[in-house]
Amino acid sequence: MSDLPRLWLRHESRPTERRAPLVPRDAARLVSQGVQITVEESPQRVFPLAEYVRAGCATAPAGSWARAPEDHHVLGLKELPPVPGPLRHRHVYFGHAYKGQQGARELLGRFTAGGGALLDLEYLTDDDGRRLAAFGYWAGYLGAALAVLHRRGTLRTPLRSLHRRELDALLRDDRAGATALVIGALGRSGRGACDALETAGIEPVRWDLAETRTLDRDALLDHDILVNTVLVTRPVRPFLTPEDLDAPGRRLSVVVDVTCDVGSDCNVLPLYDAVTDWAHPVRRLRGGDRPLDLIALDNLPSLLPAEASHSFSAELWPHLPGLGAHSRPWSRCLRVFGEAVARQEAGSGGQGAGAAPAAGADTTGADGEEALRVR
Hints:
- By secondary structure, the chain is of the alpha/beta class.
- The protein contains 11 helices and 15 strands.
- 29% of the residues lie in helices and 16% in strands.
- The strands form 3 sheets. A 6-stranded parallel β-sheet has the order 3-2-1-4-5-6, with helices on both faces.
- The relative contact order is 0.17.
C-alpha cells in the first residue's frame, strides 16, 4: 500500500477546458485499490464534484494544489497558472515544453526552481514508444468537423461544448460536398478526422508515410480542406509554407492544424504565429477572391468534454497506480524531463529545451530519418 500514489486532481484554469483526465467512474476504481484522491472544485468541469465524492474522493477548493503536501502528484490537462512561480510537486499533464514551444524555457525553469518535475502525458509510452493515453481521436474528429462547418458557413461562434449526437446532426446536413485531405490518416487523430468527414458525407483522401516522403504540394493544394494530424520529433521540410498559399490555381480554402506545434522548429505548417481560440476559432491567412482560413485550436477535444474524458481516462487510470512505484512508463516520463532540463541548463537553447525526444509511434519522414509520427 505504501507504494500507491496520492493524487490531486486540479481545476483547469483555462475557462474553456471542461475535460478531466480522470472521470468519477475510474476514480472509484482507483479508490477501491487504496489510491487516495483529492479533487478540486471546478465551475466548468463537465463532471459534478458530487460524482467524485460518491467515488470516495476528498475535495478541496479550486487552485489549492499549490498548498498540497509534497508527496501528492498533481493531475491535470492544460497549462498551469503563472502563480506560484516555483513548482515543488510532480505534475502530470500536457506541458508542451520539450520542443521549444512558447513559454517552454520558463516552465522548465519553474520546475527547476521549486524542485518539482513534469511527467508529460505526451511522453507516457510503452516499451515500443506507443502512447498509452491520448485524446488524438477526438482532436482529429473535432478539427475536421469544424472545417466542414466553417466551409459550409454554419460554424457558430463563440464555440461551445456539446455532445457528439448534436455535432453529428450538424455534420449530416446535406449541403454541397467538398474534397478533403487528411495527413497522418493512419494515426489516432487521422482516424478521427476521417470519421468526421465521412459523417459529413465527404470521402477523405488519406495520406500517411509514403505520401509525405515525396510530398506532392500541387496535389495537396488541390483540395478544399486540409487536416494535419502529424507531429514531428525533429525539424523536417514543412508540408506548406506561406509562399505555397499564393500558388496559382490553389483550391485549398481551409487548413486545420490539429497538431498546433506553433513556435517550434518542428512545425510542419509554419503559416501562423499563434493558435486560435473559442471566441475566434478561424483566422484568415489569405483574402481576395481565393480566401484561405486557418483553424488551430489547441484544446479541440474539450468541445466534446464528456466523450473525450471518458475515452482518455479509460486509457490512463490503469497506469496511475504505477506513479508511486515509478513504473517503467512513468520512469521514462521522468527521464525525458530530466534530459530536457539538462539540455536547457547546458545552454543548447536554439529550441528552448532542445529537440524533443521521440514519443509515440515513430514513422519515417521525408528526410529518411525517424522524425514524423502520427498522433
